[in-house]
Design goal:
Catalyzes the transfer of a geranylgeranyl moiety from geranylgeranyl diphosphate to both cysteines of Rab proteins with the C-terminal sequence -XXCC, -XCXC and -CCXX, such as RAB1A, RAB3A, RAB5A and RAB7A. Keywords: Leucine-rich repeat, Phosphoprotein, Prenyltransferase, Repeat, Transferase. InterPro entries: Leu-rich_rpt (IPR001611), LRR_dom_sf (IPR032675), Prenyl_trans_a (IPR002088), RabGGT_asu_insert-dom_sf (IPR036254), RabGGT_asu_insert-domain (IPR009087). Its EC number is 2.5.1.60. GO terms for molecular function: Rab geranylgeranyltransferase activity; zinc ion binding. The protein is α/β, with parallel strands linked by helices and about 550 residues long. The protein contains 18 helices and 15 strands. It has a 6-stranded parallel beta sheet. It has a 5-stranded antiparallel beta sheet with strand order 5-6-2-1-9, with no helix packed on it. A 4-stranded antiparallel beta sheet has the order 4-3-7-8, with no helix packed on it. The radius of gyration is 33 Å and the shape is elongated.
């Protein structure tokens, strides 16, 4: 047995490791307690700096210690001259770099480095950019490093085109670098600040952005990074904040105001014939503290005389804007509005040059589709390009692509159904405006959701029959002029949005899934002119005493069909 190395058993090894861990823990806890004690006593000396360095070197995510370290450094700034402070902070940068080697995604280390760089008397930004390059070469999705790089670029004034070239290099080496694609989306608007809508116009200018993205598409069509960036390029600018419609009704002495986004009623003022009016604004539904549509009632007799012309102005002080509306003699209602077409809400008027570029992009993506006919990103992008070019002209082709999308990406079929519903509603709004009617008919279109209901404020008749709708949401109450609601042959079980519609007379809901009507009786009762209610083919009709309950709670209904 002599001369053989004694091999320790597993139990012995584990025991030695445990003792070693306990020894290190005691040292760590003693140093931590010493730091806390010094901080409580307001001591900011070199020993405290060394103690925090010792602890943070092994655990760089101890936020309290970074805070204490900053307190010490700020104290040293008051007792050291500028050159000494420079040396202290340069040493601090070296220390944070060592911490980042322990954990390259340490929140505390990156934050502290940014704090130090901002306070350094003579910062070396070139060094910081080099550090970022090195870190991103090891992990091109280190978002801590990307955030820090943006700070360095801003502080040092690196030209935007130089940073754009940097993203080119990273994307060229890895098309899947989502962080680089995203960074480009923040840089391009800075490169072209004169444009009110950077995303569309950047795509449409003859610059090599398209080729960069297309190279990524054709290299790996299933990688989502470039597709998301391309969707951003095809995106729209934010809508202008404005009063989009003012509606006034003489008989009901009611004013409804629609906005381009949900707002609160603070700062809304109504002026009638030059005289401010004291009115109480309310949203269209109790659920909404902010709403795209607000309504108010004028005192009785204010505008009821049909022989008088009245002029109203709604002021929105938050945006320093207003909207006028004239109620002419002999008219019972009037409105002043910007249509969805006027606002370019669903499509923009394209110049010949822009149309040509978009057509070229569409052809390129179609070429890829020939190679990858079942690629979901390709199909979705084709739909978006078609909508940018001609949403009505490409409607049938778009619907065919949606059907394919649901087959090849069945896990997201509900998303595609909702998106298709949104596009079909937009198209129907455009058709209604072109026809200059107040009837919105979108039956048998496989709708799964309702949207853009603020654009239907003036609609008097809506037909939603033979779709797949499950609810009439609270936003439905924005249809303040609605007289007839047709929604037969859906799967509707929620009527929450049929609320306080002052002109509603007919509600046709045959063959739906309404089971608990008692929940919505109060909402239906809030519609004072409701005369006809058709609930045939709903489970609720099998409920005992339902007819007598409805007759009691809805006395205005004279034609009840169960």
């Amino acid at each position: 047995q002599h001369g053989r190395v004694k091999i320790k058993t597993t139990a012995q090894q584990e025991e030695e490791k445990r003792k070693e861990r306990e020894k290190k823990l005691k040292i760590y806890v003693a140093a931590r307690d010493a730091c806390f004690s010094k901080r409580n006593e307001g001591i900011w000396d070199d020993e405290a700096l060394q103690l925090t360095q010792q602890l943070l070197s092994s655990n760089p995510d101890f936020a309290t210690l970074w805070n204490y370290r900053r307190e010490i450094l700020m104290h040293l700034e008051t007792v050291k001259d500028k050159d000494e402070v420079q040396k202290i902070y340069e040493a601090e940068l070296s220390f944070t770099e060592s911490c980042l080697k322990v954990n390259p995604k340490s929140y505390g280390s990156w934050h502290h480095r940014g704090w130090v760089s901002a306070r350094l008397p003579r910062p070396d930004w070139a060094r910081e950019l080099t550090l970022c390059d090195r870190c991103l070469s090891l992990d091109d999705r280190n978002f801590h490093c990307w955030d820090y790089r943006r700070m360095v670029v801003k502080m040092s004034g690196v030209p935007v085109d130089q940073e754009l070239a940097f993203t080119d290099r990273l994307i060229g080496s890895n098309f899947s670098n989502y962080s680089s694609w995203h960074y480009r989306s923040t840089l391009l608007p800075l490169l072209h600040p004169e444009s009110p809508d950077p995303p569309p116009h950047l795509l449409l200018k003859p610059i090599p952005i398209g080729s960069l993205v297309q190279n990524a598409f054709f290299t790996d069509p299933n990688d989502q990074s470039a597709w998301f960036y391309y969707r951003w390029l095809l995106g729209r600018a934010e809508r202008e904040e404005m009063i989009s419609c003012v509606y006034v009704n003489r008989d009901e002495e009611r004013v409804a105001v629609a906005f381009s986004r949900p707002v609160n009623s603070v700062g809304l003022f109504l002026v009638l014939d030059g005289q401010p009016q004291r009115v109480e604004w309310r949203s269209v539904h109790p659920r909404f503290k902010q709403s795209p549509v607000w309504i108010c009632n004028l005192p009785p007799g204010t505008i009821s005389d049909i022989t008088n012309e009245r002029n109203l102005t709604v002021h929105w002080t938050e945006k320093h804007t207003h909207r006028d509306c004239a109620l002419y003699t002999g008219r019972t209602e009037s409105w002043c509005r910007d249509s969805a077409t006027d606002q370019e809400l669903f499509r923009s008027e394209l110049s010949v040059e822009k149309t040509s570029v978009l057509q070229s992009e569409l052809q390129s993506v179609k070429q890829l589709q020939e190679l990858e006919p079942l690629n979901k990103w390709c199909l979705l992008t084709i739909i978006l390009l078609m909508r940018a070019l001609d949403p009505l002209g490409y409607e049938q082709e778009m619907l065919a692509h949606f059907r394919t999308l649901k087959e090849v990406d069945s896990m997201r079929s509900a998303y595609y159904s909702d998106l298709c519903s949104k596009f079909m509603i937009e198209n129907t709004i455009l058709k209604m405006e072109y026809a200059e009617v107040r009837v919105f008919s979108i039956s048998d279109k496989n709708l799964t959701t309702l949207c853009h209901l603020d654009q239907l404020l003036l609609v008097t008749h809506i037909n939603l029959s033979s779709n797949h709708l499950q609810r009439l949401p609270p936003q439905f109450a924005m249809l303040q002029c609605l007289e007839v609601l047709e929604a037969d042959n859906n799967a509707i079980e929620n009527l929450e949005g049929v609320y306080h519609l002052p002109k509603l007379e007919e509600v046709l809901l045959k063959n739906n899934s309404i089971l608990k009507l008692v929940v919505y009786l109060q909402t239906l009762a809030s519609c004072p002119k409701l005369k006809r209610l058709d609930l045939r083919g709903n489970p609720v009709t099998q409920t005992a005493n339902v007819e007598s309950e409805l007759a009691e709670l809805l006395p205005s209904v004279t034609d009840l069909l169960l």
